[in-house]
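Q: My collaborator sent me two sequences in one message, no labels, and asked for predicted structures for both. Can we handle them in order? The first one she listed is below.
A: Yes, handling them in the order given. First sequence, followed by its structure tokens:
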Amino acid sequence: MALMLYTESEILPELGHRLREYRLRRNMLQAELSARSGVSASALKKLESKGQGTLENFIKVVFALRLENEVKSLFLPQPVTIAQIEALKAPIRQRARRTSRPLSKPAGG
């Protein structure tokens, strides 16, 4: 299922679940994946069961499972429309705009 259908809090456990599925498809024990990835067994268990862990550990496991191309494809530019190309030509903002403060009333009035 596409990740865009998940909320932010659902994505991490889903990614952990997917890592577990790939590990099992490769008939690999957690201990074996732990050794291959350099991630401790307890960290791997947390990553697979709850989606909790560091980005570094996630990437180590991804590479150990040979899923790096799938991760790389997450940020590939998508085909664009002419309207999107025109929007890209607009100047890129360098700073956020300040929010305007409400005008204070003059004293004594």
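Q: And the one she listed second?
A: Here it is, processed independently of the first:
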Amino acid sequence: MIRRVLTGLALGAALLASSPAAHAGKTLTIGTAAAPDSLWGQAFNEWKKSVEKDGKGAVTLDIKFGSTQGSEATMVDKLKAGQLAGAGLSSAGLAKINRNLQLPGSLTDWAKLDKMRATMGAEFEKMLTDGGLSLITWGDIGYAHFLSKGFAVRVPDDLKGKNPWIYGDDPVLKTFYAKVGGVNPFSAELLAVTSNLDNGKINCLAISALAAEMLQWSSKFDNGVDDVRGIVVGAVVISTDSLGQLPADVKKMVLDYGKGLNYKGTSLASRIRSEDAAAWTRFKSRSGVKIYTPTADDKAKWVPVFKAARDSLKGTTFNGALLDRVEAAAK
């Protein structure tokens, strides 16, 4: 996922009261941008193995990796059309279900994100339910750092004349760059980013270090900002209709194991958070890379731009009152 965004949690379903072996087999096709050997891919495969082993043939999870089911917007369309049973989505994909699932809040560390989820998670889950989807698990992708090629991004004016990547039609970054002024954002789906980094049409972006590493983008940048600009998150969702076609015990198993979505007994959330930090350390230590740590004065110059972007999005693209509550819940 990936500007924004897939985001894990603890494997452990209760033993089922009735035997799934008595049910006819059902295949649930799940799409994801993750590669099969990534942390997310490993967790998906662990989910698949556990469900199929204990389900004794009652259900099969057919995981389609590497964006083979199309962009996140396409996967959401397929979910709605019944062509996919589930999908791993970043916040950009979730926004296709309900725009308020991509709120541009002030979440800049894991503790704030955890606080907000504890307070408002059920409210966001209802947005999925209203869209005909059930939550398997919220997911994390990592801290967003600004990476660039051939120049440093210290203050907003450093972006003027540059070509940052925007994931599809993401309104958040589009609005933000418009408030900076003089920026030439380049809109592209995930699979089109690498070629446009190579030909120079994209020369900077905000992304988690772990995602950049797994997408093999890290080596294409020689500058990074040692400051967190936001947290890239997402979720794994499944069609409520698809779940409804399963017997009650099988449905419970799919949901219970999915809420764990771990790898070899270790929480995916904790692994991603630690691996993302390690990936950022690797990027910073790479030969030829320049890392900039913003001063207090530099940070202050970003504040009015972020505020102008959020104010512009409030009440138009997003529910302003909801955004205020997200920010309050994270404090």
